Amino acid sequence: MRVLVIHGPNLNLLGNREPDVYGSQTLADIDELISTTANDLGIGVRSEQHNGEGDIIDALHAARGNYDAVVINPAAYTHYSHAIADAIAAIAIPVVEVHLSNLASREDFRRRSVTARACRGTIVGFGAASYSLALRALAETLEK
Ligand code: DQA
Predict the structure, then answer these.
(1) 103: number of CA atoms within 13 Å, CB side?
(2) Number of domains within the chain
(3) Residue 63 Cα, ligand 1 centroid: separation in angstroms?
(4) CATH number at residue 31
(5) Which of 98, 103, 110, 116 is buried most, with the most CB atoms less than 10 Å from its CB?
């Protein structure tokens, strides 16, 4: 199984960005956890980070035919990007939405995900472990 991980806008600043909310781990630390978990599960993985909505849509389109599944943290786009939701629906491969923070316990505007409707499932609130749990969920529910 090959999985593409897409990190959305501002996640490149993890480690410095609001550490009280997002913790002290950098994106490189999270990518290392993703790699180690994927290795343990016998999954091939690639991680990309994009700040632009169009870049995320292009990455989703490019996943078609090249990956068996996608794990995505759409970051703030989660709350308003119907274009990303439509791209997830269009590619017809399983997509798991993840978030570091527990959106249900945050500001009102973060409590709604417009992208989750197109996803196979969501894992929210476990910090970096949201990504490794998403890989485990895919390994348990899809053929390797
Ligand atoms: C986030 C939550 C979003 O509301 C926020 O805009 C982010 C990160 C998370 O992983 O907790 O950038 O997606």
Answers:
(1) 21
(2) 1
(3) 22
(4) 3.40.50.9100
(5) 98
